[in-house]
Structures are given as C-alpha cells and as structure tokens.
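Need tokens for this chain, all 194 residues.
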Amino acid sequence: MERSDEVALIRRAREGCGDSIEALIRAHQDSVYAFILRLSGRPHVAEDIVQEAFVRVLRNLDRFDERFRFSTWLFTIAKRLFVNAAQKHRPWFDTDAVAGRSGTEVRPSDLSQASEQAGHVRDILDFALEALNEQQREIILLFHQQQWPIQEIAAYLEMPEGTVKSHLHRARKRMRQAIVAEPGACARAEEVLA
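Here are the structure tokens for all 194 residues:
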C-alpha cells in the first residue's frame, strides 16, 4: 500500500469509517500474525496478541504520528504484547501454520515430495531459530520473513544500521553452525538441497 493511501485510510479510520478500519486491519493482519507466530511458535498466542494489538491500535489511532510508518507502530505494539506473553510461556515454533505453498502442476508424487521437503525445511528452520537469542531471532524474522529493509529494522529496534547488519550476520552464522553441529539437521539439509 502506498504511504499516501495508508495515511488517507488512517485519517478516515480515525473518523470512524468502518470500511477504512477493516481495510487497515486486512492490510496488516497477515504480516503481523506471521511475525508474532514465528516469535512465539504458538498459533493461539499469536492470534490473541494480534487481536489485542489491533484493539490497542484502534483505541489509540488518534496518537499515531503520520510522519512514521503505520506498520512500525503496529509491530511495536504487537512486539510489546508478545514480550509480556513470553514471560508466561517458553516459545516453540510451529512453522506449519505459516508455510506457504506454490506450484503450477499438481501431481500426487509432487505433492508427497513437496510436503516431505517442506517439512524438512520447516524442521531445519525451527531447529536453527532455536539457536538464536530473542533479538537475533526478531531481526532474522523481520528481514527475511517480513522483508523489512535494514534501515526500517534499525529504526524499529532503535539501533544503528551497522548493528542490525552485524546481528544478521551473526544470526545466520549461528544458524549455520547449529545445523552443521547437529547430524540429524545436517542430513535433512543435505536431502533438501540435493
């Protein structure tokens, strides 16, 4: 969504336009849910956090500063809610809920092989993500899953861009090391890449 369109949508939502509120939620719901799901690993926790985040955003829409990106504000609120929820639960990852499927032809053998391969990829990613600390995991997810640029991640996390790049580099290295160090994960990675 273009920034000017989003600002106009937010202004109409502030005035109580139901269609604008709905459009605003639809525009950001999936990305916030996928982000929180990857952080928490629990679909029901992610659903609750996303719902609460939108409730808070809509209650405080008059506080939104239009100089900034709406998604950054929304993700900040959702992340704070996640941190509160994380104090109650130890995270685990269920990538089945966020896995996407694509393809042009559908053959039974392809489906079986693709499903098995996707399972291996999810297992490897889950295993590697567990090796990261919370900050590294968040940066990896924002960059690779949400496709946020470095400068936006830096602004969101209130850290220099060089620090974000350093965290990305270390996180990727740690994920690689975790996969290589675990024979089962390494074997699954080789199967997927073969």
